[in-house]
Every structure is written in structure tokens, then in C-alpha cells.
């Protein structure tokens, strides 16, 4: 039963009925600020490629993927990040200029949302242009070799199942979403994400989350950047 569950991983699509307003003018790169005017595709060392895998439907993998991509975008000189995700958003959303420029460069298959350029198909040419986060089902063939794989586990899952699932991936880090009992995951998880509707809403709209959720995402982003430089 455990192996069949692990083999049937699917990612939960994010949903959002509203989105943040278009950002105001500014010079910094905090939430709500306009993206820096660094040309898209400028040379930047060690732009990371990250794969996000959910252990089961509803694990929160897609929310984490978007939040992480938005955080990496804010840190990157280009001001944008690429999110590779299956399916399409239900409705358009405002985007920063950097994300719109990047989507225009990639072509009609790309959509700009917040700080993100969202594409449905992988391509080796995407690596190095901007940080890349792959939100894809377990076992899907990938043309991009990730610097780091993140396994997302719901807080009510069995730690033993998470450990079993992690063994099928390439050196993953485990992130627990909505952990109700942190003690169960001591020494077994790299980070724990608290429940936050506002964070999920911002992530769905392509913006980096704030508060405790944002702090956990920043820790994960640090690990992604370190893996890219290793």
C-alpha cells in the first residue's frame, strides 16, 4: 500500500480567485516593488534548477513551488523566475516587467504571473536564463537535471512513508506542510511550513510570501542556491 501511494504521486494545482495589484514604482526588490531593470538573460553564475515533488495529492507542492520560485526571482538580478508546471492558470494576473519580458522571449507557450514566467514544457535552453523551479509529478521524465529536489509531505503523513519516498529520489530534502506535531518530524525534515491562507494566495499569484511561511521558504531558497554553487 505504501509503495502504491508513493508511486502515484500527483501534485495539487494551486487556485486563486484574486491576485495582488500591479506593483508600484520603487527601487528595492521587496514584495510590491518593481523588479530591477537588469536585462533578461544576463550572465549570472549558478542559477539554480529545483524540482518540487509532492508525496500525495493535496500535499501543497504547487504552492511551495510557486512561493519558492517567487522568492528566487526576487533574489535574482533578472527579477524573474521560470516555473515549469502542467496545466494552465484559470485567469490572468498582473506581472512585473521582468516576468513579462521573459515570457515574451520564450514565446506563446509562456505566461507571466507576478514574478513568474510559467511554461508547460521543459527545455534545456531555460536553464541559466533565470532560476527554474519544476512543479511536476513524480517519475515524469525531465530534460533538466535539478540541483536540488524537494519532497513535500503533508503534516499528517507517516514519517516512515516520507523516508521511503525520499529513497526513490536523488538526494532530496524533505519539507513538511502544515505540521501539527513538529516533534514527529524532528531530524526527519529540513523545514516545516505553517498553515497560511495569505501565503498560499500570494504564491498562487506569483509573489513571495511573508511571515513565518516566508521565512521557511527563504531557508529552502538558501539551500537551493547553495546546491547550485556546489
Protein described:
By secondary structure, the protein is of the alpha/beta class. The protein has six helices and eight strands, in the order H-E-H-E-H-E-E-E-E-H-E-E-H-H. It has helices spanning 2-7, 61-75, 97-106, 159-166, 197-204, 211-229, and strands at residues 49-54, 81-85, 110-113, 116-119, 132-135, 148-154, 172-177, 191-193. An eight-stranded mixed beta sheet has the order 3-4-2-5-1-6-7-8, sandwiched between helices. A hairpin with a 2-residue loop joins strand 3 (110-113) and strand 4 (116-119). Helix 2 packs across helix 5 and helix 2 (61-75) packs across helix 6. It is globular. The model is unreliable at 1-45 (pLDDT under 50).
Show unreliable segments. 1-45
Taking Cα atoms only, what radius of gyration do you get, to the nearest Å?
16 Å
Structural class: alpha/beta
| Oligomeric state of this protein | single chain
Annotation, overall tally of beta strands: 8
In helices, the fraction of residues equals 25-40%
Strand order of the largest sheet: 3-4-2-5-1-6-7-8
List SSEs in N-to-C order. Answer: HEHEHEEEEHEEHH
The rough form would be described as globular
Reported for the largest beta sheet, the result is: 8 strands, mixed
Q: Compute the separation of the termini in Å.
A: 37 Å
